[in-house]
Amino acid sequence: MIKTIDNFFKWLKSAEFVSHLFIRFVVVIIVGGISLLLWFITVPILLWYFYKKFGNKRIRGCKCHHCKEINSCEDKFCIYCGSSLHGSHQNNFHSTQTSTSECKCSQCDTVNECDAKFCINCGSKLENIQLYNTIMNGIDGVAIALMAKIAKADGKISQEEASYLTHVFDLFCEKRNDCSQSRKIYKQILENEKNNLDNIDELCTSISSFNVPKDFQVDIIRIFVELAYIDGEYDINEENIIVKIVHNLKLDFAMYQNIKQEFEPKQESNSSFNGTLTLEECYEVLESKPSESIEIIKKNYRRLVKQYHYDSIVSKDLPKDMIKFAEEKSKMINEAYDKIKKSRGR
Prior knowledge:
Structural class: mainly alpha
Number of helices: 15
């Protein structure tokens, strides 16, 4: 290429061409014009390429064929009218508007603009999505999220627990402007959070960030314990969650034990671990009845021993107070089983 250009200019300066100045001028004009033309064509193409390569992809969108509003070209449904966006991609154009806030759809957890009316993924109507996020970031929403986990910890939400939650919803929504709408949001939070045990630490941090008094935090723990006891059985999984909350809130573990004793049966709360359990108390400790066979009582005994075994408690990274409590509970379970066996001549 370079050699060709050199030969061209040598020819242009050759002796036999010197006399033809007009022809030389015309040739220079043609070559210069072609160079300028190539420049004006190449620069826009390069600018367009770099814009497509590195430009802000969020400002590109597709117009809904029904309401003419802008959506992401990857969306399945219009966020404003709910119409399907299939076939709308031929209307691509640039918009200078960008999303200033984002909210999750309560049905599929897809992030949407908070002013959208329909989910971009599932097409569900986004009723009160802003109210959902507002409540979820409040003390009542956090408390309900934790209560949902406690209620479902034993595998199911019982009728007694559901009734208690409804009562709590009524108390909380009285503090909100729109009680009926807030109650609907509480139910959504319950449904979304009941199976999620990964964000307990995060929710406890939220409670701490509210700077609520310690007395109020203690009242919340009391509500949690009462919910766990409401169906007559204080499941070990429910207790583990509550103890974890107590630990994260940096509350006194003795305070938790005192609250727990308020709801425990009198016989069990007054029992000691020094070998003075009555036979009636032994059956209560093993969650059994005198009419049940020794085989059933033995199954209950093994289940409780496994729940309160030292290795099982330590593996959950619980506080030392909880570990000590589990050791005392294990002694109590063993004592109760020994007395029942002796009473039956075993």
